[in-house]
Structures are given as C-alpha cells and as structure tokens.
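FAQ
Q: What does a multi-component entry look like?
A: The components come first, one per line:
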Amino acid sequence: GEDVEQSLFLSVREGDSSVINCTYTDSSSTYLYWYKQEPGAGLQLLTYIFSNMDMKQDQRLTVLLNKKDKHLSLRIADTQTGDSAIYFCAESMGGGGNKLTFGTGTQLKVEL
Amino acid sequence: EAGVAQSPRYKIIEKRQSVAFWCNPISGHATLYWYQQILGQGPKLLIQFQNNGVVDDSQLPKDRFSAERLKGVDSTLKIQPAKLEDSAVYLCASSLYRGGFQETQYFGPGTRLLVL
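Then the predicted structure of the entire assembly, as tokens:
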C-alpha cells in the first residue's frame, strides 16, 4: 500500500538551513514532489524529482532522493520568515493516472 | 495566466444538509482533480477527471458524494447529506495532459467546509 510519512514540526532560526524529511513506501513511484501550503491558501509546487535522480537543486532548494531507503529530503538554504508554512511531500506514478499521495505535512516555523 | 478558481471559499452547514462546490480549472487543462484535506492531514484524492470522463473515483464515498464535469471544463462536487466528518478543505487541481509524462498539478485556494 501507499504511505508517506513526515515529521510534524521543525523550528529553525532565520538564515539557517532547514531540512525536511519524508519517507515513502511505494517503490514504483515515478515522481516525488514538494509542495508548500501557507495558511488559508492552496498548495504551491516547489519542486519535483524524477525517481532515477539522486539530487536536484533549484536556487535555495535542494532535493535529495535515496531510492534504496525510500527517503526524500528538502533542504532550504538561508531560511527566511517567508518560508514559514506547511511542507508536503507527495509521490506519483506519473502518466495518465498521476494520482498524488501526500504525506501528513511538516510545519516549518522560522524564528528571528 | 489565471489559476484554478474555486467557490465558495467558505461554507458552514448543518449535518444532513446538502452542499456543492465549484471549480474552474486552468484553461486548456484536460485533467481535473478533487482532493479532501482534513485538518492536520495531507490532501487525499477523491476523484480525477480526464476531460469529462472519470479516471479514478476509488476513494470517493459514493453514497453521499458526487462529482461531475459535464463539458470537460468546470466541475461540481456535491455532498448530500453532509456528516460532521466531512468538515475539511476541498481542493481542486488541474493539469495539462501530457500522455504519460510528468504532469504538474496546480491547486486552487480551496473551499473550507464546516459541518455543525
């Protein structure tokens, strides 16, 4: 079955790096995503990684994928107060089905 | 480019009443999704449409929930009758069908439902 797990809460100081972790169980997942949700808003896609990649970097964001351990992480460099939000990882088979299975979300709090 | 539009943004009803939510996807997006997000949880897919056909409705409680996308554009999700546990945010998303490749889903702001 499909199951995606995340730690519930992370607190960091402004300017530090944040690392949000995610584990998933479906080894046939093709794409893995990170979404950001601010209070009262929908989900905003931050980045995604194809399952045959180990790493993807996009400005302040670095995604690491360990397919053997089914572990995904999102590193945010130089974390700012505007990064405070809930972060969801999600997995998908891609293609015509493309159903997203989301984790429980990690609430990131950035303190001054 | 306009994003995914949803209405209403908030709705409060009593249990056993009916409610309907509306979604207008991004222009040209063939695939439309409805997700339910209960407080403190990640979104869960209820139903996925490809144009006006249903691709996946395996997690839709069909005894009370229904959805349609008659002309392959706008969609309506209905709950009849509502239960207390239906209190959640209902998110609509759309994607551009790319025939087997990665498809980014774009989400609307959601409709927040409270059932009393």
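Q: Is there any commentary attached?
A: Sometimes. For this entry: Residues 15 and 79 of chain A are 5 Å apart (CA to CA).
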